[in-house]
């Protein structure tokens, strides 16, 4: 926060260290160099094999710059569908509208999770990719509680000569701590936000594989750097880059490894308690930092659960669950453990969090039974409920 709120915000520095379009960047260059070095160290990759651009303003612009580097207009891409847990920027379109610029400028064929199990359906992805022959396969998600099989994805990408890109925005802190599978072993490009499990300021990073001249990927460095500036951005936010450098130093520390282990243990405790209480989680559990809670068996929407949680001082968000009939009526909520783990919560604390969530869900069910299905009537009933006030007092 100190770096982010510093005078570094005042300096323009279009270009890269040592090759700027502005003077006066001696110290800005040092900061960006330090940030790049720490980014490679935090993810345990060597500067001979990987490079990184630390200038993307955020995750979405990092992704679009990566696409600009690897693709031509109308090239084919495959990413995880949003209702399956994927991110908007991975080619999201509805039946009626191309929503993300990644679907407007490229031809997108999303892949899905298995509708019964909620797990990624690699066989189906392989069969679709063999027909569609994408130029790029994107893996990574915003709401997927399980790990990724990067080796399998590499094989599928190779069958069509496609690039493989991992967007590890959600799990990058767990990747840095080696608490989930390592996408750097198999991918050509890795993007991430810096503000989720990595616990830094809001921004993005693009890692690109290096290769000797003439080999596949030998041109990625120039293409990625050019795609960030001048193709998609102007001056980098130097205050943010300094903040990322601080976060990356922390991410490489033994304390961060402990944090990542605790984030996962807490998510497991939260998930197990909800399952014990009879609720349905997507894939019946988690092996990362979040649980995706399917509320449809309880007759609730994600919106109502989010609303009652707002009333009782619990912050979470409504989220689509695979099989939802409309993305406008998400059937679940997504609950993550990183923030409360930063505030020293352990497994027993998350059992208590789950008990509060259980009380909130039961209250929502009983309030809905009298208020009816409309959210506006539900809110009126929430306002009046003494039990909601009592739960809020207990949570606080
Ligand atoms: N990629 C993934 C997987 C995400 O979950 C998100 C944000 O939620 C983004 C990219 C976009 O990041 P930003 O909101 O910083 O543009």
UniProtKB/TrEMBL annotation:
Pathway, per record: One-carbon metabolism; tetrahydrofolate interconversion
Reactions that this protein is recorded to catalyse: (6R)-5,10-methylene-5,6,7,8-tetrahydrofolate + glycine + H2O = (6S)-5,6,7,8-tetrahydrofolate + L-serine
Keyword vocabulary terms for this entry: Methyltransferase, One-carbon metabolism, Pyridoxal phosphate, Transferase
Positions of modified residues (N6-(pyridoxal phosphate)lysine): 196
GO BP: any one term: glycine biosynthetic process from serine
SUPFAM superfamilies tied to this protein: PLP-dependent transferases
GO terms, molecular function: glycine hydroxymethyltransferase activity; methyltransferase activity; pyridoxal phosphate binding
EC number in record: 2.1.2.1
PROSITE patterns: SHMT
Annotated Gene Ontology cellular component terms: mitochondrion
All copies of domain Serine hydroxymethyltransferase-like, residue ranges: 1-356
Presence of the UniProt keyword Transferase in the record: yes
Family label: Belongs to the SHMT family.
NCBIfam families the UniProt entry points to: PRK00011.1
Job of this protein: Interconversion of serine and glycine.
Protein name per Swiss-Prot or TrEMBL: Serine hydroxymethyltransferase
UniProt source species: Blyttiomyces helicus
């Amino acid at each position: 926060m100190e770096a982010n709120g510093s005078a570094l915000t005042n300096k323009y520095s279009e270009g890269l260290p040592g090759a700027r379009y502005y003077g006066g960047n001696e110290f800005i260059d040092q900061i960006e160099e330090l940030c790049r070095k720490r980014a490679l160290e935090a993810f345990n990759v060597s500067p001979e094999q990987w490079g990184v651009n630390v200038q993307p303003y955020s995750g979405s612009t990092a992704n679009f710059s990566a696409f600009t580097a690897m693709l031509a207009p109308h090239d084919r891409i495959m990413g995880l569908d949003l209702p399956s847990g994927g991110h908007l920027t991975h080619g999201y379109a509805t039946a009626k509208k191309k929503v993300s610029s990644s679907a407007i400028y490229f031809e997108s064929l999303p892949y899905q999770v298995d509708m019964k199990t909620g797990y990624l359906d690699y066989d189906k992805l392989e069969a679709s990719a063999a027909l569609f022959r994408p130029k790029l396969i994107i893996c990574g998600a915003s709401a997927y509680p399980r790990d990724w099989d990067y080796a399998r994805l590499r094989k599928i990408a190779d069958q069509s000569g496609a690039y493989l890109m991992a967007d590890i925005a959600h799990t990058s802190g767990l990747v840095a701590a080696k608490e989930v599978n390592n996408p750097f072993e198999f991918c050509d490009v890795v993007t991430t936000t810096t503000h989720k499990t990595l616990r830094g300021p809001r921004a993005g990073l693009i890692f690109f594989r290096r290769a000797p001249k003439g080999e596949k990927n030998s041109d990625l460095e120039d293409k990625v750097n050019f795609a960030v500036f001048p193709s998609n951005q102007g001056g980098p936010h130097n205050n943010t880059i300094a903040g990322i450098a601080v976060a990356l130093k922390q991410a490489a520390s033994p304390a961060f490894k402990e944090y990542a282990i605790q984030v996962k243990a807490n998510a497991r405790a939260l998930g197990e308690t909800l399952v014990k209480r009879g609720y349905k989680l997507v894939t019946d559990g988690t092996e990362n930092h979040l649980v995706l809670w399917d509320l449809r068996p309880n007759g609730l929407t994600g919106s109502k659960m989010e609303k009652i949680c707002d009333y009782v001082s619990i912050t979470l968000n409504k989220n689509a669950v695979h099989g939802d009939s409309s993305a406008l009526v998400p059937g679940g909520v997504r609950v993550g453990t990183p923030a409360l783990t930063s505030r020293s919560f352990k497994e027993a604390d998350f059992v208590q969090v789950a008990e509060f969530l259980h009380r909130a869900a039961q209250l929502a069910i009983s309030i809905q039974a009298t208020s009816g299905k409309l959210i506006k009537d539900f809110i009126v009933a929430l306002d009046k409920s003494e039990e909601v006030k009592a739960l809020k007092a207990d949570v606080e």
